[in-house]
Design goal:
The protein is of the alpha+beta class and 133 residues long. It is built from four helices and four strands. It has a four-stranded mixed sheet with strand order 2-1-3-4, with helices on both faces. The radius of gyration is 16 Å and the shape is globular.
């Protein structure tokens, strides 16, 4: 059974915050990390307070977090019905751990291709894993 990840973002101009003239680098990385999770079979849902306020009201965990901490609770990350992170965007390594998806770094032995989160990258054509977690 695949994990389910729900992200409750603060109010942003678009669904990911990766738009406009001044994009924050951590939002770009987080969007890539969520795409990586999806590619590994994880069900990912993302809600933006400005565009989908009803999702925050209808989800008891998001509603309670907003009532107790206000927008400081956002982003709120819920994995399989459990709050895993509030007020900060987690790393890919944390996401992988919570969703139970293998994620290795370059210091570990090479995993099977279907279990890799690291893409091949080399300077002269060699196949060297890059650190992703």
């Amino acid at each position: 059974m695949s994990a389910s990840v729900q992200v409750f973002d603060p109010a942003m101009c678009c669904s990911t915050g990766v738009c406009g003239p001044a994009v924050e680098p951590h939002l770009i990385q987080f969007a890539a990390d969520l795409d990586w999770l999806k590619g590994n079979g994880v069900r990912v849902e993302r809600f933006n307070l400005a565009q989908q306020p009803k999702a925050f009201v209808e989800n008891p965990l998001a509603k309670q977090a907003l009532e107790s901490k206000g927008e400081a609770a956002l982003p709120l990350l819920v994995v399989d019905g459990t709050v895993r992170s509030a007020g900060t965007y987690p790393s890919r390594q944390q996401l992988a751990e919570w969703a139970q998806v293998p994620c290795v770094d370059a210091t570990q032995p090479e995993p099977k291709a279907e279990n890799r989160c690291c893409s091949p990258k080399g300077t002269s054509g060699e196949n060297q894993p890059k650190k992703c977690c």
